[in-house]
Amino acid sequence: MTINKIIYNIILLIFFAGFCSTDLRAFNYGNHPSESQTRFSLYATEASSVSVRVYENEGFTDYSMQKVDKNDSQLSGELVKDSWEYVHPEDLTGKSYHYIIKNENHIPSQLIDYQTVEVGTIGVDLFLFDRDKGYLVDTSSKGFLVSKVDNQDVELSGKIIKKIVGVKNTVFKIKAGYQIEDYFLQLSTEGEFPKRIENYPTAEPYCLDLLNNNACVIRPKPSRKVKRIGFKRGHTIHEVHLKDLTFLLDDIPAEIRGTYKAISHPQTLKVLESMQVSTLEFLPLHSFDRSAAPPGHINYWGYMTRGFFALHRAYASDPSRTIEEFQEAVEALHSVGISVIMDVVYNHTSEGDHRGPTVSFKNLARDKYFRMWDAQKGYYLNSTGVGNTCKTESEVMRQLILDSLTYFSDYFGIDGYRFDLGAAIDKQTLREIRAQLPKDTLLTAEPWVAADGAHWGRKDLNEIGLGKWSDGYRQDVRGGSGNSGWINGQGNENSIKVLLRGEDERFGGSGSFVFASPGDINHLSVINEVEVHDGYTLYDWIKNLKVSEDILLARMRLAHTLLMVSVQTPILQLGQEFGRTKKGDKNSYDKDSEINWIDWKRADEEPYKQLNDFTTSLKKLRLHYDAFHFNKRIDDERLLFINDKSNNDSAFGVIMKGSKYEFLVLLNGSDQYGAEFRFYNTVYDLVSNGEKISPRGLSKVQGGHYYLNPYSSAILRRKLPSSNLSEF
What whole-number distance in Å separates Cα of residue 584 and Cα of residue 303? Predict the structure, then answer.
């Protein structure tokens, strides 16, 4: 090897080391501006050419990208063969861009007039796509635009296009009143759906700042990082939509209500602190398509992601400062000890099925980003119920997920993530996520998909501390699937004991309320809930049972008590503390209205203020006393059940021991019978009588006896003389 060759190789190593020396492992894709240049890197399969279209002064310029040299790149062989790069000799920060792509198997055509296209071959079909959104409008091919009418398939194609097949050519004519220039045209071999729309302005999948037209604003990574505080034992997750949190909150300036900026306002922090909020979980904050919903509806909750690095601009008071506003919001929450969790949607994108809009992933590498059940016809595997399912096991999609999560952990200090329809994400990707993120990052997931195609179930992945949302806890406690629930007088005490102990067999536990093996579960394996964003609120659910307001609130206090003393991690929908109502709406995904916005005045109105005070005090007990903290699968030394003496099959007690204090929690779910408890004769402080809570104690309990009314609870506390518990 010559000296010149050695020097050349050293320069190359230094050059590419610069690309890979960031905090983000292999965060090679996207735009990377610096003082002297801007580098663009993209993954696109089956492309003959790729250009960067940079917009400036009402116009644009296309710059050709080149295939990445396999010998020079730090990317893996699978990624590098379809990676493209362009280095522009200027800093383009602030400008926006799309990608323009042409196929390897491009089919040439000739525009005869504004209504006629000619192709010099046969065996082809024409597809028309909407010019702005990229969804399928019409095609000359049958079977791709079909609708159900009275359970019968009705063919909708050919309403605009007429196909005329000659001996050696094919002519496509557009119906009078329409013009070819109104659509993006794509030709494809007969029987095949196009793998992309050529020349369609395609979004950057690694974009940090995504505009409404899917153009990406060129900007460097944030100039600073927000320090994480992690998820701590004793924390309760509080789920909330970002706008819902502050839109009706008094003393928040009108111009910033419902925005990132409002989160960091002193009044917001004051309210959250007063309610003992320790962890906030925001519904999706990634950029999403608000219009991705059935006709007449909107996508308010945000579960239709356009990009996994860009924050939703509409939540910013100043869209140009979206990143900075969210950083400031997280910092403000951290300053008062509140951890932050993001709800992330890596199971699908907003692009729907083959008929849906085109943003990015469809047009770049459809078969790598999505699972297909018939790739030739362009039919997506629809495990998610919204048209497509991300192929998380592919190298490019897995890397994107890892890079996205690491970006938000590093630069925004995010303390945990909740994976929507998590069972659509393959096990290996979830294991790599656990290995890559900080150890105190909380990972939770829905352990199901909307249809077939789950990659794992409720019993899986306990070894990585993945907290699975427990729909079973909700049904057993409050009711569902044909039963009214334990708090409503239907339910067996033994099943509730198992839930409290954290040994639910559905999630890998022993199924026993005494210590028993086998069992593959731990304190992080389950997220317990009786109310979240979807379904009826707890208040509305009980109200549907036509009970009095007093009984309704008593049952809510009982549910909240059980939730806060259960071993696994609890989650509340913020506002549940004071009987949040959505006026009976059980699926408010499309309501940007008072149905979803939190009514903070309710928190100060009786009888809901008393419920709020009660629930807030429960959270404080859980946070403050380590009797309710666990860091492993528990044994009987820390938790023991006692029975009532009145043979009430809905009542029981549980002794929970900490390092300094022991708690006796008494619970009665019966709607008809009281429950009498006897226990060893010592002096307890009555911390909760089921209606009120006092950390100092409401009164003393002596004589080893306590009586509970129907749908009621009590919490007793005593200081231990000493403790040998190895748990601490």
Answer: 22
